[in-house]
Write a structure and sequence with these properties.
Pdz3 Domain, single chain, alpha+beta, Thrombin, subunit H, 6-stranded antiparallel beta barrel, globular
C-alpha cells in the first residue's frame, strides 16, 4: 500500500503510485490524433508509381515505388532510382484513378526525379522548413509499397545532418535519419511532420539493421524540384580533374600554416577542361576553392554548385614545396548518363 509522505514542494501524496490510466489514454489519444490528422491531410497527394524501363536493370524491366504531388497542376516528386530510365510510367492515385506520367527531370546525384502526371483535380503537399526539424520530433512515413495505398508508419527523427552516397557515388548531405519503418516500395514517398508538412523524401533503409532509415531533407528536395521545373536539370560546375583524398606532410602543413591536414591530389586532367586551361598539373594537391577549404573529394563536390559555372574563381594547390593560387573558370558538367 503506498504511503503518504511529504514531497519536496511540501505537499503530500502516495509514494510509488502509478500514473492514472486516464492520463495515459489522453496521451495516446493525442498522439493518435496528431498522426491520423497529418495523414488525412497528406495521403490524398501520395501515389503509387509503376515504371517500365527501356533496359532491364538488376531488378528487371518493371519497378515501382511511391511519389507525392507538390503542385495543383500535377508535378510529382519521387526517387531517381524509382523513375530514372523509365520508358513508360503509370501513376495510381489515391482515388483509384490511373494516369500516365512523363519525366520532367531526373537527377541521380540527389536521387530525385520529377514527373508530370496527366490528370486534373489533384491534391498536393506543402514543404516544411528543414531548418526547424528537431531530433526527437514525430516523423510519419507515407507510401504505396507494392501497390498498397496509404501504408503509414510513424516514429521519430533519430538524427539530422547525416550523409549517404547516391548511386552515382556523389555524397548527399543533410539527410534525415528516422526510425519510421520503411519498405522498399516506400521509396519516393513523403516523410511528414504532425502538421502535414513534407520534411523529407524516403529514400533508403539499412536492411541488416532495425529502425535505421533515411530521407532526403525537404530543403534539398525543394531546391532540386525548382531546378528541374525551370531547366529540366540541376546545374553543377565541372573542373575536369580526377583525384583522391590525400594526407599532407606535416612539414607542409606547418610551413604554410594550413588549417587542415589533407587535400585532393590531382591524378588526371581532361584535355580541354577548365583545369587544363588553368595549367594545373597531375600531382598538385587542391587545398581550397574560392577561399573555402578542400580537405577531401566531398568538399570539392559541395563547392562545385551551379552558381560557380562561368565565374572565375581561385583554386589553391600545393605543388611540391609551394602553394599556388591559380585563377580558374568552371564550366557546366555534362548530365549523368545511365
Amino acid at each position: 500500500m503506498p504511503l503518504d509522505l511529504p514531497r519536496a514542494d511540501g505537499s503530500a501524496g502516495p509514494v510509488g503510485a502509478e500514473p492514472s490510466p486516464d492520463s495515459d489514454n489522453a496521451l495516446l489519444d493525442a498522439y493518435s490524433e496528431a498522426v491520423s490528422g497529418a495523414v488525412t491531410r497528406v495521403a490524398p497527394a501520395v501515389a503509387h508509381v509503376r515504371v517500365e524501363r527501356a533496359k532491364a536493370s538488376r531488378w528487371g524491366r518493371e519497378g515501382s515505388g511511391s511519389g507525392f504531388i507538390i503542385t495543383p497542376d500535377g508535378y510529382l516528386v519521387t526517387n531517381s532510382h524509382v523513375a530514372g530510365g523509365a520508358a513508360a510510367i503509370e501513376v495510381t492515385l489515391p482515388d483509384g484513378r490511373t494516369a500516365s506520367a512523363t519525366i520532367v527531370g531526373d537527377d541521380p546525384h540527389s536521387d530525385l526525379a520529377l514527373l508530370k502526371v496527366a490528370a486534373g483535380d489533384l491534391a498536393w503537399c506543402r514543404f516544411g522548413d528543414s531548418a526547424r526539424v528537431r531530433v526527437g520530433q514525430i516523423a510519419i512515413a507515407i507510401g504505396s509499397p507494392y501497390g498498397f495505398q496509404h501504408t503509414v508508419t510513424a516514429g521519430i527523427v533519430s538524427a539530422l545532418g547525416r550523409s549517404m552516397r547516391a548511386q552515382t557515388g556523389r555524397l548527399l548531405d543533410n539527410v534525415l535519419q528516422t526510425d519510421a519503418a520503411l519498405n522498399p516500395g516506400n521509396s519516393g514517398g513523403p516523410l511528414i511532420d504532425t502538421q502535414g508538412l513534407v520534411i523529407g523524401v524516403n529514400t533508403a533503409v539499412i536492411l541488416p539493421a532495425q529502425g535505421i532509415c533515411f530521407a532526403i531533407g525537404a530543403s534539398t528536395v525543394e531546391r532540386v524540384a525548382i531546378a528541374l521545373i525551370r531547366e529540366g536539370r540541376v546545374r553543377r560546375a565541372y573542373l575536369g580533374v580526377g583525384g583522391q583524398t590525400l594526407a599532407l606532410p606535416r612539414r607542409i602543413v606547418r610551413h604554410f600554416g594550413l588549417a587542415h591536414e589533407s587535400g585532393v591530389r590531382i591524378e588526371s586532367i581532361e584535355a580541354g577542361s577548365p583545369a587544363a586551361s588553368a595549367e594545373l598539373k597531375s600531382g598538385d594537391v587542391i587545398i581550397a576553392l574560392d577561399g573555402e577549404p578542400v580537405t577531401n573529394i566531398d568538399d570539392l563536390q559541395r563547392l562545385l554548385v551551379g552558381e560557380a559555372i562561368g565565374r572565375t574563381t581561385e583554386i589553391a594547390v600545393v605543388r611540391r614545396d609551394r602553394v599556388l593560387k591559380v585563377p580558374l573558370t568552371p564550366r557546366e558538367s555534362e548530365p549523368h548518363k545511365r
